[in-house]
Amino acid sequence: MKRNQLKFIVIYTLCIFISQTKILQAQKNKANLSIEEQIDKLFSKWNTPDNPGAAIAVIKDGKTIYTKGYGSANLEYQIPIQPNTVFHAASLSKQFTVFSILLLQEDGKLSLDDDVRQYIPELPDFGKKITLRNLANHSSGLRDQWRLLEMAGWRLDDVITMEHILSLVQRQKALNFDPGEKNMYSNTGFTLLAEIVARVSEKTFSEFTRERIFSPLGMKNTLFYDDHEKIVKNRAYSYSKHKNGYKKSVLSFANVGPTSLFTTAEDFALWALNFENPKVGDADIIDQMNSRTVLNNGNETGYALGQFIGIYRGINVIVHSGSDAGYRAYFARIPDHNMAIVVLANEASSNPIEKVFGVADLFLNEFYEEENNKRKTFKHKSKIFKKLNRKQLERFTGKYWEPEEWYTRNIIIENDSLVYSRPGGNDTKLAPISENEFKMIGDSENVSVIFNKNNQGEDRMQVIINDRDPINFYAYNPVNLKEYTGSYYSEELETSYSLAIKNGKLIIQHLRLKGVELKPIKNNLFISDNRNFNQVEFIRNKAGDVTAFSVSNSGVEGLKFNKISSKTE
Fold first, then answer.
1. CA angle at residue 43 from 38 to 49, to 5 degrees?
2. Which residues pair with 439 in a beta bridge?
3. CATH class (in words) of the domain with range 481-565
4. What CA–CA distance (Å, rounded) separates 70 from 83?
């Protein structure tokens, strides 16, 4: 499996690395507390009126066994969060969008394998058939709407309508990849699915989901929010931390499909129960939603229809997260144990994933695999460590980058030892076993680091984990920044950028956006810390003049900007 597909597995493998000692201590502390008290303890940090918080629902064996709210839905009036508080649930919306399509398929009105252009003929003909299934499992190749909008100069707190998104998609001239070749998370696909539901049903998407899903399930406080001016009772507003407390995180979306589900913990529990015992739809629809994506090459991925499929501590889980403005959400189903948990939060730095699986641990700890069966203990191969002098070590120091996922690493010297430095201060000492090969010390895996050159003579650092295929990093090289300055225009976004040198750095600038430093990797190739300009590659003509650049990020590959002027402002 390629590393760009591993993103679909990372979410549900989670990042809860608790030591065995801490687990044992936590179990001792829990011994005298009821389940309800232990859940309250997990949320105690949020359980004050002076901060935002969350609502939770726990579903087990066909019943909602626990619901509660913590913190404030509105800080200005200190309105407490309750189980019936309405939250924007962001990407949890996607499973309802897929479910709507499957209901229409069950009605005989469409098929997952239909061509998207059968329903949205104004979508550009990219020369490849894109099916509704491709949209629903993120294998369409369509560029992501949020990345496109931001690069076009939009802020995500602007009013963004369905019409805005569809207009932008219609101007695209290329796909990221051929449909079905790989997975790349694309919100665009779900906007198109919602539009198809509306056109086929001859109702708005909000009306369709209310009539076919929410009302039959008794989800009385759930809706798709397609009007940014609409008043919703008991609504929680979103916030982010600031040095002086909290600030409002404004959200003005007027689009549906990938986002804009408004729901409560109580209502979402009813949705979770429908997966166990369908009152809306049937077992076949549930099975289709729970089936992994199969790519053109026959490989399965970790994404199903509107959901991620994976394993947590040896137990099968089906999950999805949500994140817009200051809203954070996470929903996990654990089918083998007839259990589901949802957490809806209204503060940007909250971590509902941790809370969901913290609650799961209270119920399922006895079923988890032992840590020793789950992780391999690191043992160095029987190789003799060498002693290299400082001059020998200095050959390898500097910055390195990885071109597929845009990882960056620094190699430095500390106390006469080479050190592998990751962003955020996570450093690992390297011990030499030859003049150019090193072992990581103290890591839980058998990791080798080899410094060499590729076939083009470029300096390279190869990181090899447990004898798998190497991850290739390349050394930064100095470039002439002046060659890249000027004005550039994208016909697909109908927007322009200027590139100028400021304080010795190449800065990409837009009228509505903050300037971003482009960091040179080598001639014609730059990266940045901005999510929209992860990788910028410049294009030259036969005379060697820079004529354009292309941008790639987590949702867009190869979006082109043509050079229109060499002048900079």
1. 135
2. 431, 448
3. mainly beta
4. 9
d(Cα 260, Cα 562) in Å, to the nearest integer? 35
**Both tokens of residue 358?**
């913290």
Mean pLDDT of 212-239: 98
- Strands 253-254 vs 160-161: parallel, antiparallel or unpaired: parallel
Looking at residue 566, what is its pLDDT?
A: 79
Tokens coding 180: 């079905």
CA 549 to CA 468: how far, in whole Å?
34
Helix (H) or strand (E) holding 27: helix 20-30
Query: pLDDT tens digit string along 156-206?
Result: 999 999 999 999 999 999 999 999 999 999 999 999 999 999 999 999 999
- Identical fold, 3-141+176-367 and 390-475: no
Which tokens in the block code for residue 162?
Answer: 């369905």
Hey, CA dihedral for 82, 88, 92, 98, is it positive or negative? Answer: positive
Q: Domain boundaries in the chain?
A: 3-141+176-367, 390-475, 481-565
Instruction: Name the CATH topology of 3-141+176-367.
Output: Beta-lactamase (3.40.710)
Tokens of 495: 């927007």
State pLDDT tens for residues 376-392. Answer: 443 444 456 788 999 99
Output the CATH code of domain 390-475.
2.40.128.50
Dihedral pair phi/psi, residue 76, rounded to 5°: -65, -30
In sequence order, what are the residues at sequence separation of 6 or more whose Cβ sits closer than 8 angstroms to the Cβ of residue 43?
53, 54, 56, 68, 70, 355
Dihedrals phi, psi of 317, to nearest 5 degrees: -135, 150
Rounded Cα–Cα distance for residues 413 and 398 (Å) = 10
Could you tell me which residues come within 8 angstroms of residue 312 by beta carbon, excluding any fewer than 6 positions away?
12, 13, 14, 332, 357, 360
- Distance from C-alpha of 247 to C-alpha of 538, rounded to nearest angstrom: 39
Long-range contacts of 287-290 (CB under 8 A, 24+ apart): 288/102, 288/112, 289/95, 289/98, 289/99, 289/102, 290/318, 290/335
Cβ proximity of 251 and 238 under 8 Å: yes
pLDDT tens-digit readout, 271-303: 999 999 999 999 999 999 999 999 999 999 999
CA dist 94 and 339 (Å) reads: 21
Q: What predicted TM-score, i.e. pTM, was given to this entire model?
A: 0.85
